Amino acid sequence: MIVGAVQEVGLISIIASGIHGLVGENLTAAILVTIWGTGTLCLLIPTIPLTAALLPVIGFLTRSIPGAGNALYYSLSMGSALGANNSLIGATNNLVTAGIAQRAGYPISFKAFIKIGFPAAMLTMLVGTIYILTRF
Questions:
Q1: DSSP string, 32-79
Q2: What count of other Cβ atoms lies within 10 Å of the Cβ of residue 36?
Q3: pTM of the predicted structure, to 2 decimals
Q4: Domain ranges, ordered by start, for the chain
Q5: What does the pLDDT look like over 64-122, one tens digit per residue?
Q6: Nearest Cα to 16, choosing from 4, 2, 30?
């Protein structure tokens, strides 16, 4: 519902236009902004609603950047999947694991998760970025 509301009020169009203004028709810049922007936003916004909200943005950018093809969809997938490891709320499986660990007597705090998850996410996003830039 939130994604639909964000689209209805025009926020998605504003974001898409802003990103297009930033990257122009440069596919490499669009890939970098997509992977790293999505991955960073996963610190605060759970992956599934974030990805759902960004799909129309990626659709707009794909139509407006020559040669984009599927590159930006792969970039969105890469950024959201790997960026979900940034924080405890990034992905549902992180929360489930923390809950199981807590019940077993090994609580995982938000801060403790970020200490390990953030560097791991950044490293894997770097590797993912190299792969996407090489692939496309």
A1: HHHHHHHHHHTTTS-HHHHHHHHHHHHHHHHHHSTT-TTHHHHHHHHH
A2: 17
A3: 0.87
A4: 2-135
A5: 999 898 999 999 999 999 999 999 988 889 999 999 999 999 999 999 999 999 999 99
A6: 30
